[in-house]
Design brief:
The chain has a single domain, classed as L-arginine/glycine Amidinotransferase, Chain A (5-stranded Propeller), CATH 3.75.10. Helices cover 31% and strands 20% of the residues. The protein has 10 helices and 9 strands.
Length: 215
């Protein structure tokens, strides 16, 4: 983590609980690099495409490119790295603010990727998905900070009410071809600069087998 105060949030008990419930075969701990001023802030800095084994990341002070490449090599994922900037020239601080991947579609603030070659490479890496471009003002309203969940009736896209209100009718219609929209109000975290995706974590691990005890 880039901010020293956030480093105190690590919870060994949560990691232990995950290892009890899910089949964890190894840990990759990059925390030692914080003393070097290098950060890689997990699923904020990285948007993972697990089915295609790809990692998308916008360069920033919260996403060290060298650490990202090292992580991708360890996971056997292909990195897609690009520069994305706000209107004032500042780097987008987290990739998951401008980009969300769903089953068959992607919400992406393409206009924030100013370099044509990088934008083309990003679009190519999303191949097979319907790309739903987000305008910069929609990214500001957290339309890219969404997360798809597996619902009982099919995929659901969880996003904030502010983000949902920022979508145009054609964008909503495009998303609803793939997933049901579920808006939730999260005004407090949005005042701090984050939204729905920042409040969720996905566990991609298989559950541990249940061992029955003969009686």
């Amino acid at each position: 983590m880039r901010a020293t105060s956030r480093r105190r949030e690590r919870r060994a008990d949560i990691l232990a609980a995950l290892e009890r419930r899910f089949a964890v075969t190894r840990r990759i701990d990059l925390a030692s690099h914080e003393t070097e001023g290098r950060s890689l802030e997990g699923t904020g800095a990285i948007v993972f495409d697990h089915p295609r084994r790809r990692a998308f990341a916008a360069r920033s002070g919260r996403c060290d490119e060298g650490l990202l490449r090292d992580l991708c090599a360890a996971l056997d994922y292909a990195p897609t790295i690009f520069t994305a900037t706000c209107a004032d020239g500042r780097p987008v601080y987290h990739t998951n603010v401008m980009m969300a991947l769903g089953s068959g579609y992607a919400l992406v603030g393409l206009d924030l990727v100013r370099d044509r070659d990088e934008r083309a490479a990003l679009q190519a890496a999303l191949g097979g998905r319907e790309i739903i471009p987000l305008e910069p003002c929609q990214v500001d309203d957290f339309a890219g900070n969404a997360f798809e969940l597996a619902g009982r009736a099919g995929p659901c896209l969880l996003l904030s009410t502010r983000a949902a209100a920022a979508l145009r009718p054609d964008q909503r219609s495009a998303i609803e071809q793939h997933a049901r929209l579920i808006p939730v109000a999260v005004p407090t975290i949005e005042r701090a600069g984050g939204s729905v995706r920042c409040m969720l974590a996905a566990v991609e691990l298989p559950p541990r087998p249940v061992v029955s005890v003969a009686t």
